[in-house]
């Protein structure tokens, strides 16, 4: 289990995440939103979504999950740390209430929502225990919460190919990211279960999902990844040109094994952790 970050380290990571997602909001929407959308239906199913319920979408990004909840008759509110993500979400989905907010300090009273969902936010939160407790605080008694997070990079190959190439060349993560922060902590089912049970939830489950996602070619994947993956992209961009070229070469070699007549067929795996607020 990762050690808790100090207050100063948590603020440093929070600033890194805000600035990174602000810079990549548009390119993230263009490439990676379709990947994260693979978890939309499992997340909404996990909270037993039905027409009329109030739903909070945490780390809403461009707002696609909140929009799908609205399409199914829910009353969603989306929050995100990134002002540029919120601006984009409002532009794409003007009928939905989107607000800039930090998951550790949600601007809602206790017992406000029937359900809370979060698509792939956990590994970006500086203090996940605090974040989950704050989400649970806003739940009505009997309400449900569901989080998605990526499986191990060996099974989640969009990020995994980049991470393997970076590791092969031996470059370090950006200095703005505290050494104690483990982005893949909740790829471990046991850690995911402990997090949710520690928040006092009942009926806790973690379900694995796996599929194939197609990308037209390695150049599209390279550009899409650099324009979407905040931590991984920063690790590559901080290198000099010769080192970036070495990473690109390693990336191309590793991506080529997934080539098919229809482009790259990439394994994608993630987990849905969910639970219920006691009545």
Summarize this entry quickly.
With 279 residues, the protein is of the alpha/beta class. It has helices at residues 7-31, 33-36, 40-46, 64-71, 83-92, 128-137, 157-169, 189-198, 218-226, 230-237, 241-255, and strands spanning 54-58, 75-80, 97-100, 113-119, 139-150, 202-215, 259-260, 263-276. Strands 1, 2, 3, 4, 5, 6, 7 and 8 form an eight-stranded mixed β-sheet that branches.
Write up what this structure looks like.
It is built from eleven helices and eight strands. It has 279 residues and is α/β, with parallel strands linked by helices. The chain has a domain of 189 residues: Vaccinia Virus protein VP39 (Rossmann fold, 3-Layer(aba) Sandwich), CATH 3.40.50. Strands 1, 2, 3, 4, 5, 6, 7 and 8 form an eight-stranded mixed beta sheet that branches. Helix 1 runs parallel beside helix 5 and helix 7 packs across helix 11. The chain is globular, with a radius of gyration of 18 Å. This is Methyltransferase domain-containing protein. It comes from Bradyrhizobium erythrophlei.
Please give the radius of gyration in angstroms: 18 Å
Biggest beta-sheet profile = 8 strands, mixed
**Dominant shape:** globular
CATH superfamily grouping of the domain at 7-156 and 180-211 and 270-276: Vaccinia Virus protein VP39
| Strand/helix succession | HHHEHEHEEHEHHEHHHEE
How would you describe the oligomerization state of the chains in this entry? single chain
The proportion of residues in beta strands is 15-25%
Q: Structural class from helices and strands?
A: alpha/beta
Under CATH, the topology of the domain at 7-156 and 180-211 and 270-276 can be stated as Rossmann fold
CATH class of the domain at 7-156 and 180-211 and 270-276: Alpha Beta
Low-confidence stretches: none
Kindly, what is the distance between the CA atoms of the first and last residues, rounded to a whole number of angstroms? 30 Å
**CATH hierarchy: architecture of the domain at 7-156 and 180-211 and 270-276:** 3-Layer(aba) Sandwich
Give the averaged pLDDT, no decimals. Answer: 96
GO molecular function: S-adenosylmethionine-dependent methyltransferase activity
Organism: Bradyrhizobium erythrophlei
Domain Methyltransferase type: 56-147
GO biological process, one term: methylation
